[in-house]
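Late entry, evening session. Most of the bench is empty. Finally got around to the prediction I had been postponing all week. Sequence below, unchanged from the version circulated by S.P.
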Amino acid sequence: MKKMKLVMVGNGMAGVRTLEELLKISPDLYDITVFGAESHPNYNRILLSPVLAGEQTLDEIILNPLSWYEENGITLHLGKTVTQIDRITRKVIAADGTEADYDRLLIATGSNPFILPVPGKDLDGVIGYRDITDTNTMIEAATRYQHAVVIGGGLLGLEAANGLMLRGMQVTVVHIGDWLMERQLDDQAGDLLRKSLQERGLRFRMGAQTEALIGEEDGRLDGEAPARRRVRAVRFKDGEEIPADLVVMAAGIRPNTALAESAGLHCHRGIVVTDTLQTVTDPRIYAVGECAAHRGIAYGLVAPLFEQGKVCANHLAQFGIGRYLGSQTSTKLKVTGIDLFSAGDFMGGEGTEEIVMSDPFAGVYKKLVIKNDQLVGACLYGDTVDGSWYFKLLREGRKIGDIRDKLMFGESNIGDVGHQGHNKAAAMADSDEVCGCNGVTKGAVCKAIKEKGLFTLEEVRKHTKASASCGSCTGLVEQLLMFTAGGDYSATPKKKAVCGCTELSHQEVRDAIFKEHLVKLDEVYDRLNWKTPNGCSTCRPALNYYLISSWPKEAVDDPQSRFINERSHANIQKDGTYSVIPRMWGGETSADELRRIADAVDKYKIPTVKVTGGQRIDLLGVRKEDLVDVWKDIGMPSGHAYAKALRTVKTCVGSEWCRMGTQDSTQMGKDLERAMWRMYAPHKVKFAVSGCPRNCAEAGIKDVGIIGVDSGWEMYVAGNGGIKTEVAHFLVKLKTAEEVMEYTGAFMQLYRKEGWYLERTVHYVSRVGLDHVKQRILEDHEGRKALWAELQYALDGEPDPWFEFAKAQVDVRQFEPVASVAVPAGAASAGSAGAGAKPVPAAPLRGPF
């Protein structure tokens, strides 16, 4: 299918985040072209201030290097400004004549700094502060000049002033307001901030209005060409002048809508967009970021812009289920090392009450605004640890009457927990937000730490983006690391050991088993210097799997190194009974099978019969001593619902019955299941086969998803419908059922050989990279066929544990009830439970699980 063309104008954070989200869910829908006016790939504008201050380099703030664009097949035009959009022919044209056709257009042109309309604004040395060029200009000026004036006492102005001061310039901040950052702070917090910054060496002119910028005297000799004059001073309306070799305009921003307006798109405070981020003028054109106006608001904070990007990507991918409804924002900032937080109506007013705590000596100020027994605003200076909690109360509209007397002292003082060493991170719910810039919750951070084996702050930033922007949540992220990773956090090891029995990682153990041809657990313990003679409940199942998957038919499965469900071949329930789920090929059954199931339910008084989400029937409440007889009476293969194995192959009815079906999905599902149903894997595996792109079998969230199309089949891999839904990656388009079988088998065998124990396919592919999978499955034709042959060899003769007990090494003694034995009077020892004690078998089955 021919790809559509997506053109993005603008190469900043909001636009590129939209592309990242789009590539996650629909990587092959578009040929993507990006125009960027700057000569750099996408970088973190929030971190321009640390670059100016000399704390970071330009390379360190690059978010998407040039290689990222290349790897994703994106055509990138750097240093090219688009000047025209031809909506009739659907084409964009750059200033140098470069053209690009589009089916969909995404405008992400951001904003421009507001330049005061005063005389002298065009003098040399007068700049805005918005990009890398401005930052480099300031760095260069600091090496040659002494006096700098920053006009604007907002966040950006203060960061610019601090950076220039650290580079040796004498800096004066000119602010028309009565206190600094009046949009984020009240007057008291603003004054505390000013005094603190003054102590560090900054100078301030508060309430001052700039009248003109004064240039150098024209010192040209007769006949010389006129040179552009440089600024030398700033004059205020009261006539006062202060010296200025550099003037930085940081008095606000304006949405960059010039291109959109020239194309006839409706603009009012930005490019007006709907809840789907489509422009109200042309539905083929989308806009995100600071240039977009949604419901009358143009957002300037990162978190809302990333929310827009996610919704926009959803619609560009043609899913059409997301809506952007606006954002309730809070501001948590670190201004030159000083922590600030504000949210809601922190100024207060009629009908509100204020709770204020002020300790100027300690540099702490807190103000909470209450209305109708609800927290409606908060302003924090110096101590912002409870900012996210206050913002949560504000969003939820919770009544605070019962905690009002302790509200000012923070979440750790709610309830009698102070003596417990209360940890802020530990007390947060998984749904609570940790990183406001990137919208990352505690649950997402903890999940990444646990599943990806993260131990350092940099690793968390890389995988979750938490703490990667403004940095104000760094302390909280470090707390999460400490209590999630435990002692490993301080040690920051480069690898995660399998368990305490060894220093080796999963990969090192897998490599050693294969390289040294180890086929027994005892050989592993001996050759790899295991610290314990018999392993533990963590390493034994992993080692057992690595042995049988590396050396099938040589290594012997050790049932006692499996978990209880896999030893009993049924799922144990919370009351000690078991569930039995027989296999139904592709979700299809027959009257005869249903009768046998019904008869078994009646015969063994099974209390619950339930249809599962995997198109099978679950018999719940089966007594352990009845399992063997239930399996025998039902007479159906094991569904392996208890195992790290192929669980289900979900199908729709497909072309056999459905009017919309393009392929026979039921038969394809049955064939796949019959071919691989005895396959053990690092973790549970689920397939789905849909007969048409309507995807009724939900193939997009399965470990392997097959979708029928007119010309054959599309194959998707590494989806997950569990705790965190992950959309599967498109892998390849296939023509025949035989190809589907081969490619699926090869992918499964690759996962079986390279996956770590208890690692789902979604995490395996995330670890090794989809490109690695494509190289092994798509590009290496002989290798793919070899993988499929290896899997068939491994599965050949694999027994059904419900019927081939001896071959499957099922110890049927475990299903025999232990007889009650009467204890003669006086025979019980002093330490026994006495009369009525449950009998204990003399030789229980071995195993720590």
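Two things to note before I forget:
Residues 415-423, 486-494, 827-849 have pLDDT under 50 and may be disordered.
Residues 737-754 form the longest helix (18 residues).
Will write this up properly tomorrow.
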